[in-house]
Amino acid sequence: MFIAFKNAFNPDDIPEELYLSDGDNAPHWLCLLAAQELQGRLSAQTSLNHNFGLDGQTDTAVVGKMFGVLVVDSPLHGVGYLAAFSGKLGGKNLYKDFVPPVFDLLTEGSFLNTGMQELGRMNEQIKAIGSDCNGGTQLLTDLKHARRLHSIALQKQIFDQYHLVNQAGIEKSLNDIFEDAGYKNPPAGAAECAGIKLLQYAFKFQMKPIALAEFWWGESPKSAAWKHGHFYACCKEKCAPILSHMLS
Questions:
Q1: Of 52, 72, 181, 216, which one is least surrounded by beta carbons within 10 A?
Q2: Do residues 187 and 2 lie in contact, with contact meaning Cβ atoms separated by under 8 Å?
């Protein structure tokens, strides 16, 4: 997953002050180099099976995606960078040159598939009873309550599979991280952001993070102000408690 810069350089030649961020949202110059290289590959990429909306198409499948780059110092390769995308891309988690997710929900035969099938069965039962004029009100209420409990239990089981490692090598589950931070439950999509994936991979493989940046690539979603090619800080709701653990 490590990507070498096209123009190699010696990390000893980098002034110490350049290891610091240029500002809250201004990317480090090494991140700019990494992002430019990644954006060049994204522009020429045809194997990602995702319509970013940059070729004039306007169908409903068009959507941009948040990408991230983490400049690292690897004990095996020197200074280079890692790349990641938030969530899934083209319905997949795994692509060459991108770090994997913290936990792969798409694994065939996983508990998630079984749990979602049971949830689907419950939905069909509720739909059938709701369309039956003679359907019992109490039975419908009980089924909806059972569906809610099943959904909550499944979500908790999912979050328990996410084990985030910090720079000291200490692991915590997503549920424990958010509980320690005073949250009732982790928000949906927690630990799926690009920055979290990047730090997880770097710490697992003993790489020293130097600088991190995330940018939006593609058409802006209607519900947000993200713009193509612009850089953004990590989101507070999903990422702040995780980063507090990972960077401790």
A1: 181
A2: no
- Structural element, H or E, at residue 137: helix 137-160
Distance CA 68, CA 101 (A): 13
From residue 120, give the alpha-carbon distance in Å to each of 2, 71, 114, 124, 155.
Answer: 40, 43, 10, 6, 15
Alpha carbon separation from 168 to 19, 104, 111, 176 (Å, rounded): 20, 24, 30, 17
Please compute the mean of the pLDDT values over residues 171-177 and round it to a whole number: 93
Q: Where are the beta strands (DSSP E) in 51-129?
A: 65-74, 78-85
Element (H, E) at 63: none
Across the range 157-182, mean pLDDT stands at 92
Please tell me whether residue 186 adopts helix, strand or coil conformation: coil
Task: Tally the C-alpha atoms within 13 A of residue 158's C-alpha that lie toward its C-beta.
Answer: 23
- Report the distance separating Cα 152 and Cα 157, nearest Å: 9
Distance between CA atoms of residues 195 and 66, nearest Å: 10
130, two tokens: 């709701």
pLDDT at 10 over 70: no
pLDDT at 165 over 80: yes
Distance of alpha carbon 78 from alpha carbon 4, whole angstroms: 8
Q: How is the chain split among helix, strand and coil, in percent rounded to 5?
A: 40, 15, 45
Q: How far is C-alpha 190 from the geometric centre of its chain's CA atoms? A: 7
Q: Domain residues of the chain, as ranges?
A: 89-161, 165-194+224-248
Q: What is the pLDDT of residues 112-126, one digit of tens each?
A: 777 888 888 988 888
